[in-house]
Amino acid sequence: MPLNQRIWVDQAVKQIEADYLRSADTHLVPIQLPVPLHQPNVDIYLKDESTHPTGSLKHRLARSLFLYALCNGWINQYTTVVEASSGSTAISEAYFARLLGLPFIAVVPKATAQHKCDLIRFYGGQVHFVAHANQVHEAATTLAQDAGGHFMNQFLYAERATDWRGNNNIAESVFAQMRGERFPIPSWVVVGAGTGGTSATFGRFVRYQRYATQVAVVDPEFSVFEPYHRSGDASLKSEFGSRIEGIGRPCVEASFMRHVIDRVLPIPDIDSIAAMRVLSAWLGRRVGPSTGTNLVGVLRLIREMAQQGEQGSIVTLLCDAGDRYEHLYDDAWVEQTFGSGLQAHMNALLAGVSQAY
User: Which domains does the chain have, with CATH numbers?
Assistant: First the structure.
């Protein structure tokens, strides 16, 4: 690498590290479930990732991906960065690209929420639409080649760009924040999977630290992660993409580490939306749909723990805020997209009788 490029990379890494030092850690919020969902021997916590500078869990991933690409010599001061993303990763990568003065192109499915696309553009990125989620990888590869740039490829590199042993990854942060709680070592950590990077980080970290914590992945409709976890068939494909933005994939991604995940729980989409609405009411602020998916998985595990007379804690993620998903708070749009009965599903979740768990 020429000296001037090495100097630029050194400065780029320094800028990203300085940005990290300016940011506080995200909060771990205890949740008091209402009767009849509350179990006195099970404590629930939300790791609120919506408070990152770019408003989502993907801020951590984008930082790691940029550092990984910089230190591997894949990005210099002339590189156009391209990513395949349903929105949140692209928003965060656009932020870091602007920080470094680099052009950025996000390849997103046409169904991606408008607010997410607006945020990508706000941070200086371009948005390239494709018809379906299964087309984003090919389109991103082509755009990067045509621009002489770098395809960041979160779905390939998510699990290796993050140091799963520690270095303030999300798992280390959660366990540090749990130290003063009644059950400091969680019985379960519940996460969704888009790239699979977060579940891989938690799964590896708890094994490395020799914790008894189990990791559960919640999987929406039209995603292949649950059948892949059962069968090990990496050739599985789904004709449709997930309707819960940010999680679920129509094909098996390289960063989804099947062997470090203890369970995968399939979650009906209508229950994800119902749980999103319910949790928003509990918190007094709107959350996104993947957080609703997480909550349904948590409620299922709470019920199982109560039935088996177990005590402990469960940690899940508040992935992003609901202001990116105004359409999901429109009853008419939800009924047209997911079918009728949203209120009935919300009532069933609150009553503890939902078929989702």
Answer: 13-57+164-351 (3.40.50.1100), 58-159 (3.40.50.1100)
